[in-house]
Structure formats: structure tokens, C-alpha cells
Amino acid sequence: MTSLKTFYDEHPINESEILEKVENEGIARADIKPEDLSRYDQDHYGALAATDALAATLCIGPNSHVLDLCSGMGGTSRYLAYRYGATVLGVDLTESRVAGARRLTELVGLQDKVSYRVGDAAHMDLDSDSVDRIVSQESFLHIEDREDLFAECYRVLKPGGGMGFTDVLATDRIGTAARARFAEGFAAPHLASVDAYEALMTGAGFTDVRSVDLSAEWLGILHDRLDMYRSLEAETVARFGRDRFETYIGMYAFFIAQIDAGAVGGARITGWKR
Ligand SMILES: C[S@@+](CC[C@H](N)C(=O)[O-])C[C@H]1O[C@@H](n2cnc3c(N)ncnc32)[C@H](O)[C@@H]1O
User: Fold this and answer.
1) Superfamily for the 4-272 domain
2) Model pTM?
3) What's the burial of 167, exposed, middle or buried (CB within 10 Å: 0-12/13-18/19+)?
């Protein structure tokens, strides 16, 4: 199985690629603004609109202390800071992603509003009742200890705080071979169903747990993503080799076919702490 570290250390959306894309627009490094990065630093489906939907559902604003769980290159953390005025802490397990997120954030001068630390979302080194909101996008598919994950999220949220996340889901149509392929190709051996997620959140204490099915919306987005990754062929092959590129492209095509077949999908799930 592809390890999480390899998957993200060799990911086509990375610091160099993001900066290269912005500079190819004719913007000098010293002049790069957060919104320039935002065109390329979103490692989830639906780009900024998906984050706007989470922000609206969770009423994120200038007074919000937000925990961006599994923050990757930090695109969502920076966006919540510069667009909504929130103070954001990003936590991610992959050291190279945290280091890159920090450098990009400093480059655009958001380091006073946004910080990052390396950490496991299921076992966080954060105080109880310390954040107003938790967001996470397309990341929980990697995490096995989901009871611990939601217990931790509930613990660190302040009373009255809210959590919203989007993720890749499995339906009861998924087969054993497809599960194995998600494990191998996406470092995601534990795809959950929407019912399982709702039960886990409720079990952890969350109330008013709701989900919105995003599967149809994601189909179009994924086709665009596949085209985008294909357009990065030269850069990805040069950086990580042809095998990695072919595996990645093949995995995305498989993912699209699985959504088409109703075996996997996506959803936005929210809940609140009493
Ligand atoms: C698809 S990326 C999403 C990045 C970011 N949320 C975004 O939308 O741009 C998934 C991220 O989850 C992180 N991750 C996976 N398992 C984790 C865990 N147990 N704790 C913290 N981060 C984790 C990975 O390192 C990766 O950066």
C-alpha cells in the first residue's frame, strides 16, 4: 500500500508547482498575494466554493478561531484568514506539507493570522474547549482511528462550536477489489459511508448532525481535475517519475468510474457541540 508520507511527499499539488503556476502568470515572487496562491493551492474538490460552503454553514467570521484539520499546503487556512478574517491553526501529519504551508503563508504575509503544526488529527496536542470551529476537506479517508478522531474534535471544540468536513465516501456497492485499489492508489484503506460518519459524530456527542450529498457535483469537478493532472505531466514526471504520474492518472480515472457506478461518492457533514 502507498504510504501516506509517499503519497503526499510526491503529490502533484506541491509548493514548487503552486509557485511555478503563479509565476507563469507573470507575477514576481515578491508580489504574490494570497488570492494568487488560491488559484492553485486547494487540494480538495470544488476549490474556494467548497470552502465558502463550509464557512457559510459554520458561520465563520473575524471572531472565529478555526482549526483546519489535515491542512495540507494550507490553502484553506489562508483563505479563511484573508477572506473571512478568521484566525486559523492548521494541523497536518505530513511534515513536508506543514513546512510548505508555512513558507507559502509567510510569503503572502499571513503568518500572524495562520499557523501550522505537525500532528495527528486523531490524537491532538491541543487544549480542550479551545477552538470555535473545525473544518476538514478530503482528508478523513486516510484516518483509521475515527472514534478517536471525532472524540478529539469534540474535546477541542468550545461548547456551542461547530465542525464541518467533506470527504470521499463508500456506499454498499463498493467491492473488495475497489477498496484495495483506494488503499493502494490513494493511501485510503478505510473509506466510510455517510451513515457511519453520522453515527460516529453522534456517538462522540455532536448534535444536529447533517449531511449534504456532493457526489453529482464532484463528478464534473473530478473530470476537470483529471485534465488538470494530465496537464501537469511534464512537471510531475520530472519531479517524481513516469510511474508515479501514470499511477496517479490511472487512479483518478478509476475514482471517476467508481462514482459513476455509485460505489463511492462525496458529502459535506456538519455537527455541533452542545
Ligand atoms: C487531500 S489533502 C487535503 C489538504 C487540505 N485539507 C486542502 O483541502 O487543501 C489530505 C491531507 O490530510 C493529511 N492527513 C492524513 N492523515 C492525517 C492525520 N491522521 N492527521 C493529520 N493530517 C492527516 C495529509 O498529510 C494531507 O496533507
Assistant:
1) Vaccinia Virus protein VP39 (3.40.50.150)
2) 0.94
3) buried
